[in-house]
Amino acid sequence: DAMVIQNPRYQVTQFGKPVTLSCSQTLNHNVMYWYQQKSSQAPKLLFHYYDKDFNNEADTPDNFQSRRPNTSFCFLDIRSPGLGDAAMYLCATSTRSEQETQYFGPGTRLLVL
Amino acid sequence: KQEVTQIPAALSVPEGENLVLNCSFTDSAIYNLQWFRQDPGKGLTSLLLIQSSQREQTSGRLNASLDKSSGRSTLYIAASQPGDSATYLCAVTPTDKLIFGTGTRLQVFP
Fold it and tell me: How far is Cα B84 from Cα B104, in angstroms, rounded to an integer?
């Protein structure tokens, strides 16, 4: 089945130690999104790619970076995780059309010690 | 700036009840509105998508309505079951991005 896959499902890192989260998709969608969701809060868009075009949200901290080496894969890099970065990180994909739904992966739960 | 509000924040009902979840948004210029389900510690599952030109969508026991002019949507769940227990999020698409509400946490007890 076509799907959005995130690895790992759970990630524990130390304060200040760089971490990379991975997302892959078999849907061949043009657009890939990264969201941060803290406990009992709505998902917050960090950035997204239209094909190779990177679109950063204005309030996304510089500590968060992303790479999309090809259509199928997208990575979220947190350069120096702080305690406030502990959250669920959700990857989603969609076609280029604004009228189509986004398909979400299962998420990666990040814990910062 | 688009804001999405969901009421109530939490709801606990006995099995078998019909229930309504509410979503309101401040800017009617949207492409569509979606309802998602999120189980604890999991990702989001799309339930229903209503295009801006539509008034409602149905899937099984779920029915979602959209009134763009008043900035409101409702999700109706018929004959609720314990397996419906989850957080339900609505989201609008003003551009190519989703703007989410904070969700309604639903518990259906036997």
Answer: 12
Cβ neighbours around B60 below 10 Å, total = 8
The B residues from 40 to 99 touching A (CB cutoff 8 Å) are 41-46, 49, 51, 89, 93, 95-98
**B13: burial class by Cβ within 10 Å (0-12, 13-18, 19+)?**
middle
What residues of chain A have any CB closer than 8 angstroms to a CB in chain B? 4, 6, 31, 33, 40-43, 45, 48, 50, 88, 90, 92, 98-99, 101-107, 109
Placement of tokens 């604890």 in the chain: B40
Exposure letters B14-35 (e unless 16+ CB within 10 A, then b): eeeeebebebbbeeeebbbbbb
Burial class of A34 by CB neighbour count within 10 A (0 to 12, 13 to 18, 19+): buried
- The token duo for B52 is 């801006």
B48-107 per-position pLDDT tens digit = 999 989 999 999 999 999 999 999 999 999 999 999 999 999 999 887 788 999 899 999
